[in-house]
Specification:
The chain has 452 residues and is α/β, with parallel strands linked by helices. Helix content is 43%, strand content 13%.
Amino acid sequence: MRTHLPFTPQNCFAVARDEAEIQSFLNNDVYKFLMLDFILAHPEYRDIEVRWAMKVRSPEVRIAEIIPENALREQLGAARAIQGVTPADISYLRGMTTNAKKPLLRETTLAFLEDFRLPDFHLENDGHGGFDLSFVGPWKTSMMWEILALKIVNTLYLYYYTKKMKVSASEFNGMMTEQFSRLYRDVAMFKNSSNVTFSEFGTRRSASTDIHRMVLEILGGELPNQCIGSSNVMLSREFGQSNPRGTNAHELRMIPTAMVDAPKDIVDTMYRIDREWMTHFPELAILLPDTYGTSYYLKHAPEDIAQGHTGIRIDSKDPLIAIPEYVDFVLKHGRDPMQAIAIPSDGLDATTAIDISRKCSHLIGKITSGIGTSLTNNTKGLMNPSKEIYGPYGSFSVVIKPESVWVPNKSEWVSTVKLSDNPNKAIGEKHRVLLFKKTFGMEGMESHEVLV
């Protein structure tokens, strides 16, 4: 039946049009390209064999009861079939620059992307309501699956849930109308706090590329001076933004530290990676210290890192605790915190971002938040509860992380570890996690609900 309702599955989900969700490698977070540039520049890293695995951290979500395995396999296969980055996309990537107008990516990285192909994937039903989804390959290629696969999983879950429950056209339109009403309520809150800025970091868990695009169009039109950019490379290009927003992720420390066993070597490797990153991208020298605990990292940071970095991204620690702790660290090393930047970025929404700015902006030179799921997938509670018989409809906590690395001198796969400032987000095999806890301690860590 033909409908004139503004929101339909066909204009919200590529799969409803029998199209691929991922049609370009640029439909990805910019930090993946930045880390690729760094990894390719370091022969000791680029060919490390890495196994990545999906983990659904929301125990009530049973994705295999919603997403047909053949549909997931088809969408993953479509992404893997993409052959390289187009000349037009290469031109855009070449145009991304630092504040000093220097190219962000090296020509050797652009040449690598011209012929880029994703490695294969492994997918099977785990028999417990979930999927075993993994990717194995050299770090330089396998790393690019993370965001793309997460986008596919999230959008298929939402679309097939509405299809499974036979949501009518009018019901679907009402659900989507409420999602965007929530966005406009957030916009109104930001307008009442005009000093608060943020970047959109919602690519990995966006409801779909179509919805993501609508969200960015609204943010750009309503908050042009407060929404300072998106992490999504493809959509930044579409909206005429020359430089997507992002730096690096936890994998940068998780993978190299898995190659060593001695506590001193683990610590030295963590700091060495950050030192090398700062040398490679001096204008993007933003610390991400929560991989093995923010308190430990700041307490033991070498002087050159303390002096050479430009700010901090706060991922898993309460920013109201982390920002004062970071300011004390900066002052301890004789630096002016008014010359530093803090980027809170874990599970934020308009309310929390505004609250953080109100309570901490006097402590540090700049606070600008990274806001993700609450902008691009604000879908919890949209479906009639009577139809949520397969678990909750809406966004949920799912990650794809490096699970293990192949260590040639051991001839075995060794588990990666991420401790996090929130122990509920810890990743790794038990014996390796215990080793890292013994190495770094648990100071400053606090368990709380994992929202995204």
